[in-house]
């Protein structure tokens, strides 16, 4: 309790001293003359009296909106056991000097600044965040600005993560930036929180590096994230001279007074100004920033056309290799990252994702994270691109990729994350672990957690456009190469999805979808019957379809839908009038199973390079 009161009232004590009230009160004979000798009861009474001087009758006037209300500065030089290492001691020392420099600059502009936190453990880090949030609760008002500055260890795993001293386990010890934003949202709203982070963003687990803050948590306040480097990079080398501390830190120091000025700043413009100043001073630097959408009560003067109102996707400098910084990781943990393709046709749909907390690829039957193994193709069922985006904004339901009539690829959910689309589903594949059963529904599994989903604009009843096939095939080839997706695991939504009660009669992506274009491009398997079957039974066909992967639904109508979908996908000849089954069905499914077995055998014998079909 004393610690909480100390932080809450430290400003009141400072004001008493400045206004000359402190000595008058201190002369009271009933009080001791040394804070060190005060017992708990006397200290509480002292703090209450001190607070009364600043607000005797009326509540304290809130700090002016959009001024720098509070600051937290953390300097973290890495693991203690590496602090004495000859090659890393200098940047670690620079890290703490940088934190002190930011702290002193914040004090000079008369902002509330908690003491610099140096080399914190995980618990100390989180305690400091709690104190920072408590300070925000007690000071500032709607629209106030709060600065969180961090210089030290960090990396990029699903999102940016701080690495406290002694941290060894990424899943337990590292602290996600999104978790801090979530803690802030639980306590305050309608504030402007600026995160300035001078840290490496390399990736020890070699995950795909793309901008990951588009699905970050934090929606009740306005967040501006300013990083010294783009995703996947380490930071630049630091010289020995203090004057040559990072240009990132020195630039923030020069501009911090603007946050504390009485004039209302537009925070994204402030961040963008810093980014430009950094690049002007040192072309090697590649700062990255992201600003969330305004919320009610935050700054209201943002330009509607501001380039900083959306996430920056700065390409990594092709000729620059950052070799040393604050990172605790050895060189083998710092993979080089290829620059983003400037001709990349993907367009990210920047919108608050209401399902962002549930995007991890997890097999809920086994409670483990999983890798991408499947690709699901579907359609918009006649909805336009605008309607699909509007629905995603409202419900968070949609595919990873959406291909418009013009052949543009819109990213609704990053492919590293799980897109919740379609109904419950099942696909029998050895990569998709565990199968459950729902009474009256049939088999289900977590195939969507293993899949990247792609939807085409259209109903499936009308032909898709050539530009859509071109964009789709290009995307499929990259996904197949990046994630080693097997061709038999590229399926239509209608092949895996349990139809809802009011299911469309046309299984997605629809009868007008030309699977042969994908087959010719090496992105799908084609049925190639090799023998003429002599006999057939419904049971045998059901077993064969399940071996191939078709398992959703029950044994009556479910089987009929599975068979209809299979015939549509693989263009199997319909049975003669009056016949329920056809020998062509058995021949087609047998040919697919044989192709799959041959490809698996080829991989076993000679490796993945021989796994492509002829």
Summarize the structure.
Helices cover 33% and strands 14% of the residues. The chain is of the alpha/beta class.
Rg over CA atoms, rounded to whole Å, is: 30 Å
Shape: elongated
Oligomeric grouping of the chains: single chain
| Proportion of beta-strand residues | 5-15%
Helix content class = 25-40%
* CATH architectural category of the largest domain: 3-Layer(aba) Sandwich
Total helical segments? 15
Global mean pLDDT: 73
Structure report:
By secondary structure, the protein is α/β, with parallel strands linked by helices. The chain has four domains: 2-54, no CATH class; 68-333, Rossmann fold (3-Layer(aba) Sandwich); 345-524, Lysozyme-like; 526-614, no CATH class. The protein has 15 helices and 20 strands. Strands 1, 2, 3, 4, 8, 9 and 10 form a seven-stranded mixed β-sheet that branches. Strands 11-16-15-19-14-20 form a six-stranded mixed β-sheet. A three-stranded antiparallel β-sheet has the order 5-6-7.
């Amino acid at each position: 309790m004393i610690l909480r009161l100390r932080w809450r009232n430290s400003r009141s004590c400072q004001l008493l001293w400045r206004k000359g009230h402190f000595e008058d009160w201190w002369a009271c004979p009933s009080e001791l003359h040394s804070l060190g000798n005060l017992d708990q009861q006397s200290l509480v009474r002292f703090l209450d009296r001190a607070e009364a001087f600043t607000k005797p009758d009326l509540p304290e006037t809130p700090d002016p909106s959009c001024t720098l209300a509070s600051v937290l500065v953390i300097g973290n030089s890495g693991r203690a056991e590496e602090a004495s290492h000859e090659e890393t001691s200098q940047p670690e020392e620079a890290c703490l000097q940088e934190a002190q420099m930011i702290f002193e600059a914040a004090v000079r502009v008369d902002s509330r600044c908690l003491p610099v936190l140096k080399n914190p453990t995980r618990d100390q880090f989180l305690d400091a965040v709690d104190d920072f949030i408590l300070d925000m609760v007690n000071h500032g008002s709607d629209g106030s600005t709060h600065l969180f500055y961090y210089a030290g260890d960090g990396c990029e795993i699903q999102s940016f993560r701080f690495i406290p001293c002694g941290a060894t386990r990424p899943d337990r010890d590292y602290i996600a930036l999104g978790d801090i934003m979530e803690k802030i949202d639980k306590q305050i709203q309608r504030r402007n929180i600026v995160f300035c982070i001078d840290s490496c963003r390399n990736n020890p687990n070699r995950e795909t590096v793309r901008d990951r803050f588009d699905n970050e948590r934090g929606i009740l306040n306005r967040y501006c994230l300013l990083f010294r480097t783009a995703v996947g990079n380490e930071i630049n080398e630091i010289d020995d001279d203090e004057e040559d501390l990072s240009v990132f830190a020195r630039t923030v120091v020069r501009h911090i007074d603007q946050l504390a000025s009485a004039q209302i700043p537009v925070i994204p413009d402030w961040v963008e100004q810093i980014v430009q100043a950094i690049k002007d001073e040192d072309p090697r630097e590649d700062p990255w920033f992201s600003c969330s959408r305004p919320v009610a009560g935050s700054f209201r003067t943002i330009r509607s056309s501001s380039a900083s109102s959306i996430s920056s996707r700065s390409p990594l400098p092709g000729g620059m290799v950052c070799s040393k910084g604050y990172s605790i990781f050895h060189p083998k943990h710092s993979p080089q990252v290829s620059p983003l393709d400037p001709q990349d046709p993907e367009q990210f749909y920047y919108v608050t994702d209401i399902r962002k907390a549930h995007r991890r690829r997890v097999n809920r039957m086994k409670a483990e994270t999983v890798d991408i193994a499947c690709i699901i193709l579907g359609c918009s069922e006649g909805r336009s691109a605008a309607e699909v985006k509007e629905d995603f904004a409202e419900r968070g339901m949609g595919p990873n990729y959406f291909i418009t009539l013009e052949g543009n690829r819109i990213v609704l959910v990053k492919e590293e994350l799980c897109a919740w689309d379609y109904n419950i589903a099942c696909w029998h594949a050895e990569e998709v672990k565990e199968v459950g059963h729902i009474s009256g529904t049939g088999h289900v599994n977590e195939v969507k957690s293993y899949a990247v989903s792609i939807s085409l604009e259209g109903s499936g009843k009308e032909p898709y456009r050539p530009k859509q096939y071109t964009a789709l095939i290009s995307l499929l080839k990259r996904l197949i190469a990046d994630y080693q997706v097997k061709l038999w695991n590229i399926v239509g939504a209608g092949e895996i999805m349990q139809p809802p009660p009011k299911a469309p009669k046309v299984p997605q992506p629809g009868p007008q979808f030309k699977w042969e274009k994908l087959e010719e491009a090496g992105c799908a398997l084609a049925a190639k019957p090799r023998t003429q079957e002599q006999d057939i039974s419904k049971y045998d066909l059901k077993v064969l379809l399940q071996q191939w992967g078709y398992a959703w639904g029950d044994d009556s109508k479910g089987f009929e839908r599975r068979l209809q979908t299979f015939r549509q996908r693989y263009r199997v000849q319909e049975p003669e009038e009056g016949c329920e089954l056809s020998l062509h069905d058995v021949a087609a499914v047998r040919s697919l199973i044989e192709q799959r077995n041959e490809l698996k055998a080829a991989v076993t014998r000679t490796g993945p390079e021989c796994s492509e079909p002829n």
